[in-house]
Design goal:
It is found in: Cell membrane. The protein has 17 helices and no strands. The protein has 412 residues and is mainly alpha-helical. Helix 1 runs antiparallel to helix 9.
Length: 412
């Protein structure tokens, strides 16, 4: 009986993860779809781009802020349940974007869409942490990450294509349909009893939530992971945000070509996804992010020095490969650094990730205005070299060691 049940359970878990991946694809596409459709919205309402920027920034603000809210809710009421309801809310708010007839309505729908979508990716990662043994988790999380990479790519490229031929509202209708597919799959899995892990039971209330986050921040392993992901996001996206504008200014290439150049970043990420198991087996827990840091540092040095436009394509692709070598390792640690409150721990990980991006973008913009983009790229390269050394020498050698360190930290 045990032997027949184990493959069945594994299959059901795999089926659920596929639907979680579909929901994560939709959430990722929603974060980047405005890159392509903002000019179309501005044209329809007869305003300039600056007047519709709030449609994009409102989503980003609530998406980052509400990570901290949904982590404890997932621990308390069940990650699977919260993800499912967040998918329903995301679908409704996406439809509201499609059918809104005023800029104010679109902005409000986007604001609420950011609130709902904030629950999906971090709680999906936390649910996988509950359902999948730690020795199998990193390669599976790498595959799961491909849904987010493809979602970002689809939002940027697909949003432009759909908007061009069918109007900008069609992009939101398509994303809403993807949410419907994901929610339907999750509801069926729930009815079949396949979502028994991550069902909740943690302590509730504001005081308990504050205590949980306070305990996490006192944990030395949690602090290490949060420090590492903050450095990673600060350096990576503080510089990467300005790569496209730098290429356009330096080489005079058009914006369509800039978009194609930047898309190679996602291709590099997908290369990592396909090779993650081999790379992890070959390099291990410490060397994998270390080598990734060296690759990212080399690509930023290359972008700072190159005088030939087309060389940016392999550099940006290699940057995507290196970044996901780092981020997948840190993401896996985030799922194991506090298993008893996994939803909260992944949520605080995501919050530090997004807030550090925002700080990096602002500071890099200040430096670029005074010293140029090359200075920002070189600074990012140096930071990644330091991050690589930190990960190689200080990262716990295994997830078992991570848990042991966590227990020792709590005991102290």
């Amino acid at each position: 009986m045990m032997r027949s049940d184990a493959p069945s359970h594994r299959q059901e878990t795999g089926r659920i993860i596929r639907y979680l991946a579909i929901a994560s694809f939709a959430a990722a596409a929603t974060t980047r779809v405005m890159d392509a459709v903002l000019p179309q919205i501005a044209l329809e309402f007869g305003v300039n781009i600056g007047s519709v920027a709030v449609v994009a920034t409102g989503y980003a603000f609530t998406y980052g802020l509400f990570q901290l809210v949904f982590g404890p809710l997932g621990d308390r009421y069940g990650k699977f349940r919260v993800i499912t309801w967040a998918g329903v809310a995301s679908c409704l708010m996406t439809l509201a974007c499609a059918f809104s007839t005023t800029l104010t309505g679109i902005a409000l729908a986007r604001l609420l869409s950011g609130v709902a979508a904030a629950a999906i990716v971090p709680l999906a990662i936390a649910w996988i942490g509950d359902a999948v043994p730690h020795e199998e988790r990193q390669p599976l999380l790498a595959k799961f990450m491909s849904s987010q990479i493809l979602g970002l790519l689809a939002g940027q490229v697909g949003g432009g294509v759909m908007g061009e031929y069918f109007g900008w509202r069609s992009t939101f209708l398509l994303i809403a349909a993807i949410y419907v597919l994901a929610v339907a799959g999750l509801v069926i899995a729930r009815l079949r009893g396949g979502a028994s892990v991550g069902t909740g039971g943690g302590s509730g209330g504001v005081r308990a939530t504050i205590h949980t986050f306070s305990r996490l921040l006192r944990d030395p392993v949690v602090r290490f992971v949060l420090l590492a992901v903050s450095i990673e996001a600060f350096a990576m996206f503080g510089a990467f945000t300005y790569v496209g504008a730098t290429l356009q200014f330096r080489f005079g290439i058009d914006f369509a070509m800039v978009g194609a150049f930047l898309a190679s970043y996602c291709i590099g990420g997908l290369v990592y996804v396909t090779q993650s198991s081999r790379l992890f087996a070959l390099l291990g827990n410490r060397k994998l992010p270390f080598i990734g840091s060296l690759i990212v540092a080399a690509t930023y040095f290359g972008l700072a020095m190159t005088q030939i436009a087309w060389t940016a394509v392999p550099l940006i692709a290699a940057m995507g490969l290196g970044f996901y070598m780092i981020h997948n390792s840190l993401q896996t640690m985030a799922t194991q650094m506090a298993p008893d409150v996994r939803g909260s721990s992944v949520a605080i990980f995501a919050t530090f990730y997004f807030l550090s991006q925002a700080v990096g973008v602002q500071l890099a913009g200040f430096v670029i205005d005074r010293a140029g983009a090359a200075a920002v790229f070189v600074a990012a390269a140096v930071i990644f070299l330091g991050l690589g050394v930190l990960l190689l020498t200080r990262m716990p050698i295994s997830l078992h060691a991570c848990n042991q360190s966590r227990r020792q930290g709590v005991a102290r």
